[in-house]
Structures are given as structure tokens and as C-alpha cells.
């Protein structure tokens, strides 16, 4: 199935779209050689290696044993936003590393949710609102007070309580695609920008102006 069509059908269905499948389809849009089912298998294998179903075990396994880490040298490399590349290189940005953490946790029975803090995506334990994880910074575990201080530093005046609420899978996908859109705009990559805009427009919350943006990009090819 065409990856764009597959993504659109997935996010249009009732209920929360599975993050692992949706992110695998985004990767397949970026590179037709990517087999989404193989990306899922990689996540399955990754989770199988985690010794214990705890936050602490996930942190040690992913960020110490396997060496997943944030890319500080080339933050805006598009590979940092593509799940297959993040799994292969063990390097990413906060949101994609968070997806790896969340999906590994889900497979091991550790319920984790995404926290869309401004400028720095975080993860929180679904059943304990006082346990936060920073996947970009070595899986650092900290409490709610520290998370509130981080939000205040990132965006003074913003309500920390609101910023630390869990976000939906669709919101996570929209944010991931926003990152890719900004990167491809900066690179003037019209081909990549076209599929990113198509995916964004299949999600609620996309900007109405993006319809015109997509039309302009498509006109570039005519």
C-alpha cells in the first residue's frame, strides 16, 4: 500500500492511531525502500531485550546499554525525525526518542504518555503524574516540580500545569510533521515538503493555509 494512503487511512480511523505504525509510515514516505513492517519488528526486538518492566530498567537499557541519545551536533538533520533512522543510528530529537521510549515501554507493559512541553518534548508515566522522563538527555528521570521549572525556563508565563498535560497520538504526529516541514522548507526540498503537507492535512489541527501551501508546492512540479 502507498505509504501516504496508509497513513491517511490510519489516522482517519476511530480511536487513537498507533504511534509505531504511523511513524513507520512517515519513514516510508521519506524513503520508499523502508518497509514499515520491518520497523515494527525492530521495535519488537528492542523491547524484547529490556530486562524489567520498569521505568528505571527502560532508562538504563535504552540510554546507557544501547546508547540512544540526542543529536546535539546536527539537530535539524531530517534523519532525527524518522523512526527507522533513529532506531538504526540511536540518535534523534526529543520527540522521536520519546516515541522509541514510549513504544518500548508499551511493549514491556510500562504505560507512558507524551508531554508536549514547548520546545522540548517529554514523557510521563501514565499512572504516576510525578514521574517524567527526558529522552533527549539520556532518559533523565525527574519529578513534577522539576518538570514545571523546565517549562518555566522554556516559556516564561506559560501555565506549567497545562503544558504538562498528556497529548494525543495525533498531536504527537502533527508535531513530528511540523518539525519535518520546517526542515524541508529551510532546505527548499519541494518533493519532501509535498508529502509532509499531505500527511499534515490528513490530521486534525493542521493549518488551513497549508492547503494553499500544498497547491503551490505541487505547482512547482508542473
Describe the structure.
The two termini are 26 Å apart. A four-stranded antiparallel beta sheet has the order 3-4-5-6. Strands 1-2 form a two-stranded parallel ribbon. Helix 2 packs across helix 3 and helix 3 crosses helix 6. The protein has helices at 3-12, 19-30, 36-48, 55-65, 83-89, 94-107, 144-154, 160-163, 169-186, 190-201, 209-220; strands spanning 69-70, 91-92, 112-115, 122-125, 132-134, 140-142. The protein has one domain (3-220). With 222 residues, the protein is α+β, with helices and mostly antiparallel strands.
Q: What count of helical segments does DSSP give?
A: 11
Instruction: Give helix and strand order, one letter per element, not per position.
Output: HHHHEHEHEEEEHHHHH
Shape: globular
Residue-averaged pLDDT: 94
- Give unreliable regions as ranges: none
Helix % is: 55-70%
Q: Approximately how much beta-strand content do the residues carry? A: 5-15%
Distance between the termini: 26 Å
What is the domain tally? 1
Provide the structure class: alpha+beta
Q: What's the Cα radius of gyration?
A: 17 Å
Give the neighbour order of strands across the main sheet: 3-4-5-6
Care to count the β-strands? 6
Biggest sheet statistics: 4 strands, antiparallel
